[in-house]
Amino acid sequence: MENSTPSLHFHLGGTVVILTLMQHRMIARPFFATDRVSDLDLFEKNTQKVINILLNADHGESLDLEDLFARFTVDAASEFLFGENLDTLSFGNDGFNSFMDAFVDIQTLILRRGTLGRFWPLLELFKDKSEGHKKVIKAWVDPLVVRAVQIQKEMKEKGQTVDPNDCTFLEYLATTTQGTLHPGTADAGG
């Protein structure tokens, strides 16, 4: 008999994490509680950076607001969820555009695959169209996953447990997946 429980497959730094939807909600719930999300200091800091960029722009200089807001989103989300601000708003990170291009392109590919249903692999018999995009995204995400797994390992050696109020989402995920979160061990090509 086939399992009828809906499941969620997501790609995290070369790792496929498969959870039922109920498990997913239970794991994520502590990080989206009102007291966590309403902690606006981190959003305020990144908002101030955006405002300063807008105020310091030369009159007549065009600004790509889509790029600016994408950078704000990545910086705020990475700090909130991963504990590390990727600081893309400093514009010193040359790989950001390639990351965003890969991120948008892989979302489009996933949507296209979804519309084709179980027949999408027929269109990729000879080449996985996501491979290049995954490589770029992994270069950004894998260091975060490695750090979370290392923190999990150190805490386990010390006999400590994770307090959801005092850790990042990724650190908590590394702990609650019971050692199954390892960068580069699985391929999410499908």
The helical percent reads 40-55%
Supply Rg. Answer: 19 Å
Strand order of the largest sheet: 1-2
First-to-last CA distance: 23 Å
SSE pattern, N- to C-terminal: EEHHHHHHH
As residue ranges, the low-confidence spans are: 1-18, 185-190
Assign the structural class, choosing from mainly alpha, mainly beta, alpha/beta, alpha+beta, or little secondary structure. Answer: mainly alpha
What's the multimeric state?
A: single chain
Question: Number of helical segments?
Answer: 7
Q: How confident overall, as mean pLDDT?
A: 77
Number of strands: 2
The fraction of residues assigned to DSSP E strands is: 5-15%
Shape: globular
Largest sheet, described in full?
Answer: 2 strands, antiparallel
